Amino acid sequence: xxxxxIMAAMFASISGLAQNTQCVSTTKKGDRCLLTVNANELCWxxxxxxxxxxxxxxxxxxxxxxxxxxxxxxxxxxxxVCYHHRPKN
Length: 89
Ligand SMILES: [Zn+2]
Ligand SMILES: [Zn+2]
Description:
Number of strands: 4
Shape: flat
Bound molecules: zinc ion
Radius of gyration: 22 Å
Largest sheet: 2 strands, antiparallel
Strand content: 5-15%
């Protein structure tokens, strides 16, 4: 039982490094930003690189259908192919 407590304490200290904290930036009104972020990072609103990293643009699927016409499904998957045309794992 003691071992479990030690493990839990260790896990807490490790995960504590990446604990969510409040964004350090302020809103246009001058209020403290209330969004939660990883330690020492800015939230999606205040970090100019945030959207570039995480959001994929929505594109039309680049695959063709069985009858050789362009697939018109929209997808935001990095492969640029819709879920119909991606290989299933
Ligand atoms: Zn913020
Ligand atoms: Zn497709």
